[in-house]
Design goal:
The protein is α/β, with parallel strands linked by helices and 142 residues long. The chain contains six helices and six strands. The chain has helices at 14-25, 39-49, 65-75, 90-99, 111-122, 130-141; strands spanning 5-10, 30-36, 53-56, 80-85, 103-106, 127-128.
């Protein structure tokens, strides 16, 4: 039996959380164990649900995803965070990676890209989506 990757979804837009949860229901090797609408809810919910991977929005009211990732990384270092954001700017990518995230995918990319990031994170690998990697490389060359 294949172990399912336990995922916690954190985004302040309810329709986005619910849509992503429905998409993930069709994937046999993942299981959504919880939904949170803010960074301040994440630590308690992560302790209660024991996710392997947390898909974390960056811009949220209250505690943002970068601060929440920093808190999670200190309290639960075994839990992997994949940032899922509308932002592709280098400063956001670097900030959340420095806070402890192991992945970064933009919301403009496809569902398969997120699955690659989640599976990589569950295996302890870092994953930066192709769109973000290209933008960061362009920024380094400027």
């Amino acid at each position: 039996m294949v172990m399912k990757v336990r995922i916690l979804l954190v985004d302040d837009h309810q329709i986005f959380r619910e849509a992503l949860q429905r998409l993930l229901l069709s994937v046999t090797d993942v299981e959504v164990v919880g939904l949170a609408s803010s960074g301040s809810e994440v630590l308690e919910l992560a302790r209660a649900t024991a996710p392997h991977v947390i898909c974390m929005d960056i811009n949220m009211t209250g505690m943002n995803g970068i601060d929440a990732t920093r808190v999670l990384h200190a309290a639960l270092p075994g839990v992997r965070v994949v940032a899922l954001s509308t932002h592709s700017e280098q400063r956001y990518v670097l900030e959340i990676l420095q806070a402890g995230a192991t992945g970064y995918v933009t919301k403009s990319e496809g569902f398969d890209e997120l699955l690659h990031a989640v599976r990589a994170a569950a295996q302890g690998r870092t994953y930066i989506s192709s769109e973000v990697t290209a933008l960061m490389a362009d920024g380094l060359l400027d």
